[in-house]
């Protein structure tokens, strides 16, 4: 159905264009509280409280958390308090109890409580795989799992990590001028070779997948998914340039939880077409204790996670279609080192004192300037740093 | 004054008697023309056919010798402006052209009916058939009072019936309009009469009748090819002021053809949208809203069959082949008691009957579609057929999509077929059979295919039980099915099917009691057979477990009776009632509908009308979107989903001005609806066994004023209208904070208060004309995001109250240049060429609004414009 909505929009898009639209919403009162997190039994949970924001304005930063205390309660009187950052380890919590979250907003002193949740077993993930989809131009990530018939509704929590390389592999790096350098280099700065495998060539980047991915198996004759697509990465995306990894955690959820996430997904992604559902707010399972008519956003589910990951190596599959760019390098005389580094945004990469050092644009040399870092995950399947 | 006249007449008779008694000299003094003619007839046994000029108030005095008296009297009449001629020993006296032959003209003989109206050669001779006198019925001694005259009006060239021809006596005492079979019936006084036939773009006809008794008179009329500026009173104007019903819009195919449309294909539904009081939520959607009603509250009838999805290709085209459609009528206020089952409007579309004289056809070539039609006689004078089909080559639109869009390999197509046969058993009995089939299919990347199909088949027998009693029996079946094939993953591949099927039978009777009363009564039965949803696995690999919701069957039975009472030309009242019973297993809903409308004419060109009607509806469209979508299915009322009901009260003033060329109208209405279905947040509409849990009932109110000026004839013709209206909904149940907009009234999705429309056509010559279409309306209401929040690793949107914002106002102007074929009769094929531009000003109208933060640091709103630039088109139509 969703694909149909896309198709219709796309068909009309063939003869249509898109223009900016702004509505005057200045008079609207925005004061709703958002509470987020799932009670993960046998693992660690993270809860947070935030506020709704005006739609205008920057969105590249996550909103400030509202200071709050989070306590998970079970139906036998057990209480588990999260730390000040909202983290809670429930590794040893029994799974035969029902759980709920109680949260207190420190700013307003209001108390919120979610509905009781029964813990459902999540079956193991059989496999994760990827398949290049040439017609769509995407790398499709697919999941297979099977399990007992009782729990057939899942949400997938995903994050992706990818390793990428700078354009040039530098053997040397630049040390800016300082009094600790040898006298000759105090004004020019110094070019020093990397040691012990250190480099600015390999970087890693991590991102939580924001897609609200839920699947219902109820229509199938058995509780089984085979190669069900759960994520797709465009083939021009730099994520696929070297090694890409998708971490997937599945969690069995209730029908009510599934409806909430599905609805949220629809109103977030499939609005706009005349044929898409009229957007509306759906109430979650959190109530304000002192005022049950207060509209609280969020749904607190509870369950167990089953996790797996898959790696994609572009060296083997060659599905990545890079958008080509050209870079140039040049030898720079020592007297110009500092100026080139400071004002031209260049970095040295290789050479020697006799032949001179080759310099290039810093973003072609230092992979960290493309948003990543040198924090390699412990499970990463290669041994360079 | 009347007393004085009577005395004068009495005195005159006295003088006549005295004069004849005294000598051979005969003398009459100061008598009326009637008396003079009567005197000649009785005293001298002369046969005189006399058609009195209604404005003749002259007194006549004749004094002559007995043997010369007739001549003298006739010459006196001649002197007062009458034309006197003689034929076969009879005298013919009338104003205007001399009257000629009174031979029985063979109106009752089908084989001769073609010659009733002279063809090119005959029209040049002095004696046209208009100058003849047609005798109706057998002469009976002493027959007095009034007699019924009835018959069919057909097109001279094709032999097909013509609808909407006004048939009336010059003084307006007798009046009728031909129905969709071209049939009329009226009452005329025994004796000499004159009858006018006038219809849109037809040459007006005046016939002289000598009515002896009840009888028939079939007429063929010819299309007007001259006098673009002719001061002809349009049939619409006449019927406008005679009919008590209001809010009826009739648009003919040749008008529809001139209305510019996207991609140039003449479109019945798009033409409906140019009428006041009719709105749509978006320009690429076929659903329409009549006076604040929802899209599923319109009964769309095509040859008596219900069409559940009137659109092709997501609404870019309507389901009706313009080469096949004869005419359409939209009832948006007064709905005759014979119709029921929907609470907002009735769109009644009839296809052609087929040319009874020769084989003809059309071939149409458009940018996205091509079409053909063929019609002609099977048995001359008895049986005709019509056949039409359309198909599309729209895939190029999808191929224009960028390669990376994922839809580049998509396909979309549709086709439809119409077939009809009309058989005349005899003068009194005619059988019509029609079949309509359409199929739409679209897919993308080969993994999801969507299909839907309409099928309608109907048979109708029309029978003249007697001269005053007509019966129409009809029956048939309608079907609408939906299929979704999901092949994304071979292990979960499945088909989802839903079907609506109904079998219907109907008997309609119409019975005239004098000129003043026309009774209509009848009964209708519908059997519903619904498949709300079935899923089945596709392929061997799939372990999808098929499921089926329980099939639903129901019976709807209705009986109705109504009367049109027109005591004189000033007053007319139509009233009726319809009683409907709906049985779905153990659940029964019964309700009466009431319909009444009345008019009072202050003058022949100024009338006031008012009306009220109530309606019930037992079938509901399940849609969660603003527009008709290919995914929508239908649901019949059951134990928990109750019938919708509604009523409308309306009033209007109609004034024909500018030498009877321009019709002005002002209509106002108030409408209320209840139990219209809306949806809870997160409602699941497909394969939901507990559907009623996800639905909410709403009440609606709509009100508005429509002003319109229409000119149907002349070089410049068209209409211009302005509507101010509102349409509001309110949830009926209180569900606490989840109640839609807290239980307050909210804007219906099609609430567009201001609406201006203009459809104009200017004919430079008979061949070349320029058409223009202007549409302005307030933007439709939308629910937009008003806030954002971070949830589950992404920005999510929080929405405003339902429909509390609006997209920008809509404005569009289209123009088309039409080249009609020349009137060379000998030419084998006639080509119509239409060159046009849709959205001439290139205004970037918002089709919809969406918000996204893809590729940017902030969440931005965007509007999609479907036709954001002028879209030129060319359309060719070859008629042979």
Keywords, please?
heterodimer; A: 385 residues; mainly beta; 6-stranded antiparallel beta sheet; 5 helices; globular; B: 880 residues; 8 helices; elongated; disordered N terminus
Q: How would you describe the overall organization of this protein?
A:
The complex is a heterodimer of chains A (385) and B (880). Chain A is mainly beta. Helix content of chain A is 11%, strand content 39%. Chain A has five helices and 28 strands. Chain A starts with a helix and ends in a 20-residue tail after the last helix. Chain B is mainly β. Helices cover 8% and strands 52% of the residues of chain B. Chain B contains eight helices and 55 strands. In chain B, strand 48 (785-791) and strand 49 form a beta hairpin. Chain B is elongated and about 120 Å long. The N and C termini of chain B lie far apart (63 Å). The chains are: A mainly beta (385), B mainly beta (880). Chains A and B meet through helix 1, strand 1, strand 6, strand 20 and helix 2 of A and strand 48, strand 49, strand 53 and strand 54 of B. Strand 6 (53-54) of chain A pairs antiparallel with strand 48 (785-791) of chain B, so a sheet runs across the interface.
Which value, in Å, is the CA radius of gyration of chain A? 26 Å
Tell me the span between the first and last alpha carbons of chain A. 45 Å
Count of helical regions of chain B:
8
User: Stretches of chain B where pLDDT falls below 50 for ≥5 residues?
Assistant: 1-23, 99-128, 226-233, 402-407
Query: Beta-strand level of the residues of chain B, as a percent range?
Result: over 45%
Question: What is the CA-based Rg of chain B, rounded?
Answer: 31 Å
Strand content of chain A: 35-45%
Low-confidence stretches of chain A: none
Number of helices of chain A: 5
